[in-house]
Amino acid sequence: MNKVFIILAFVLIAPTSYSQNERKYNFTLEQAITFALDSNYTAINSRRDIAIAIKRKWETTAAGLPQLDANISYNNNLKQPVTLLPGEIIGGDPGTFVPVTFGTKENASATATLTQLIFDGSYLVGLQAAKTFLDYSENYAEKVQLEVRKGVINAYGSVLLSEELVSIFELNKINLEKNLRETRVIYENGFTEEESVEQLEITLINIETQLRNSRRTLIIAQQMLNLSIGIDVESDVTLLENLDDLTQSNINLGFLDETINIEDNIDYKIAYNFTEQRDLEVKLEKSYAIPNLSAFLNYGTAANSDSFTFFESEQVWYQSSLLGVRMNIPIISSGMRSARTQQAKIALEQAETQLTQTYQRVLLEINTAKNNYRFAIENYNDTKKNLNLSERIEAKNQVKFTEGLATSFDLRLAQIQLYTAQQRYFEAMLRIITTKVSLETVLNKI
């Protein structure tokens, strides 16, 4: 009986616990961006890349600091090697040999070695390379942040666009259904032709199809926004801004007159980092032709026995120590070092060419982004005017159709023209938002 109560309690509590774990989000655009910069999956990994670069820099630095290694060994000669000595040593006949075993059956040793790098050209280049790699990782993280911001803005705007389209299609559907009902009454009373009803039915079917597709598109747009923010794609998110306000806040022609500094572009920075890396590779290959110098201090102890007595107090341990300096002097590599250096120089020239190409490409991207943004604003103004005209034309045709001065075909054309103008108007609003963020991204302006 107790088990039954426990099961019932679990069933009743489980749904409540699940609902409590569900989280709902409410975002303005800036709140969504801030949240994404912290939670977006790519942004998280870019921060980890920086952490890796910092550790790699320390790894390179530590290679030039003192290194201490210890070695402990134990050997048991299960079968000791036998050496043959001439028999004459013990008074034997010439040409005979005496088998002799040297050493003890077991031996143990412990050694500690301290090494210190004094000079190595490749080490100095490695320090510079580690710093350059850290700079690259930081620049890449900045690029990720720019792309995350761009992705969130585009996804946020797409959700708002989908919501507007769903709303306008729903409103159009309501109006069409009203027109269809009224036209059917007129047809049933013999004051219009059946074609008038059929024309409206065709238009209504098209609107219903577009409405269903818009609702599905809205769901996908919401999930894409959730993914760009870095939350579960099925989470409930409410947007606190509307498409019109967001569009108006992004109309700023003065933004086009700002000073352009291509060196601030993140792609140019990354290309410059790549050139620095190639330059350091040339220096690294050259450093291999320079002698390197290191010092070491060795201390060890060893013991020998015919049985395992190494932990006994009577065991004798023999100490040894060695201090030394080691210099490695490259002399002849048969052209191998020269070939590697030449390869590195060619790679550097390629990187410099790519840097020049990146400069020109970024300049083109800036000019293109400016042109797209200017066109988006002009297109928005034009579509707004077209929408107003289409609304007036459709309203006039509604009156004419009701009074019998226009055919159902004329009304349908006016309605289709209105619906197209509505869709283009909302799409023009989104285009302002997306082209503005593209321009901000290429200019590294947030």
How does this structure look, described?
There is one protein chain. With 446 residues, the protein is α+β, with helices and mostly antiparallel strands. The protein contains nine helices and eight strands. It has helices spanning 2-21, 29-39, 41-62, 121-188, 194-229, 243-249, 266-287, 336-403, 408-443, and strands spanning 24-27, 67-76, 82-86, 97-101, 106-119, 236-239, 292-305, 318-328. The strands form three sheets. The protein has a four-stranded antiparallel β-sheet, with no helix packed on it. Strands 1-6 form a two-stranded parallel sheet. Helix 6 packs across helix 9 (408-443). The longest helix is centred in the middle third of the chain and has 68 residues, at 121-188. It is elongated, with a radius of gyration of 40 Å. The relative contact order is 0.12.
Low-confidence segments, given as residue ranges, are 1-21
Q: Give the strand content.
A: 15-25%
The amount of helix comes to: 55-70%
Note the gap between the termini. 65 Å
Q: CATH superfamily assignment of the largest domain?
A: Outer membrane efflux proteins (OEP)
* Number of separate helices: 9
Shape: elongated
Tally of separate domains: 2
Round the Cα radius of gyration to an integer and report it.
Answer: 40 Å
> How many β strands by DSSP?
8
Mean pLDDT: 88
If classified by CATH, what would the architecture of the largest domain be? Answer: Up-down Bundle
What is the ordering of alpha helices and beta strands? HEHHEEEEHHEHHEEHH
Q: Which fold name fills CATH's third level, the topology of the largest domain?
A: Outer membrane efflux proteins (OEP)
* The top level CATH class name of the largest domain: Mainly Alpha
Largest sheet: 4 strands, antiparallel
Strand order of the largest sheet: 2-5-7-8
Structural class: alpha+beta
